[in-house]
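Protocol step 6 of 9: fold each sequence in the batch and record its structure tokens directly after the sequence line. For illustration, a two-sequence batch is reproduced in full.

Sequence one:
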Amino acid sequence: MDLLLQRGRDALANGDTTEAIGHLTALTDHAPDFAEGWNARATAFFQAGQFGPSIADIARTLTLNPRHFGAMAGLGAIYEELDNPEKALAIYRAALAIHPNLGGVSEAVERLEAEVAGTDL
């Protein structure tokens, strides 16, 4: 598991999302109960612009680990990309309820609160 996860992360760091998805798919096939494998593949799908598969993998991550604040933050980012600030804001708030100091998420909440309220920044 560790080797496949590291290979996937290394491929992502090198910008090769296709290779990353391949390694991380092998990981999820061999260790379907390992939440971090699903989360890492969700990240690879996100970076490849494949939001549907990314959301599906985040759902699996959160089924296995409902307190996975990193997966929540990723889901919030997807909903921002999909121009759904209300849903992104709700998800970011849920992540902050678990990890109040989650980097960048507090700022995203402030920005989205202003956007949802109709205030120009």
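Sequence two, same batch, same settings:
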Amino acid sequence: MREFGIQIYSVRDKTGTKEGIESTFKALRAMGYTQIQTAGTPAVSYEEYGRMAAEAGLEIIGTHDDFNMMCTDFEQALANHRALNTKLMGIGGTHPKAGNEDIAGWEEIIEKINQVAAKCGEHGMKFTYHNHSHEFIRLANGKTPMEMLMERMDPVNTSFVLDTYWVQHGGGDICGWIEKLAGRIDILHLKDMMRLPRFDEKNGYQMNIEVGSGNLDWPRILKAAEKAGVKYYVVEMDSCAMDSLESMRISSEYLKTLI
């Protein structure tokens, strides 16, 4: 890992206006972040968002964007991603309408992913899939959705945004999954896990926390990621217990010690 980025969803409370985007981009770049992954483009157009990121010295390496648009209006989705100057068209996650244990629903999702991915491939792009922990539910067919995704997603035109926290949350082995998906992880989400002393109604027994502040073994994880050919390392926080920019600063300061 020589540089690292941020999933902009982490600072969504700061980016509701054009001015907020500009000041947030400047602050993140000053912390040492050089790359961003988008979560939509609130407040401005895709074109303006891409320009603002470039002016701040931030490379847009991928997205979490509208899967329905990708499926029903791919040309518009393609135009949006070209405006951002990124080659990774991704979604932040999905699940079958009938429930996470619906095998046919997962098969339908994978079919749609491969259809979108084929179009991405025609334009020199890839489709990326970001996991949560529901992909680790054991289904009636003996497999988890994560295993189905690994086995059936087009290995050429798709890749994974593997989320360290959610793998751990789902009972998976982070380094084991990095090894299984070697060559197929374009983005690794860096998100630490803290074990809480008592049950919390919102988080259960664990919550996400700044990188280096929890229980995950980052030197081991990053070593496995380097070996597996991970391209981008992206900090993500689903929620922050402090000011979101301060949270990003804590993670960046820790990651600088590992470069």
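Proceed to step 7 once all outputs are recorded. Observation for sequence two: Residues 103-122 form the longest helix (20 residues).
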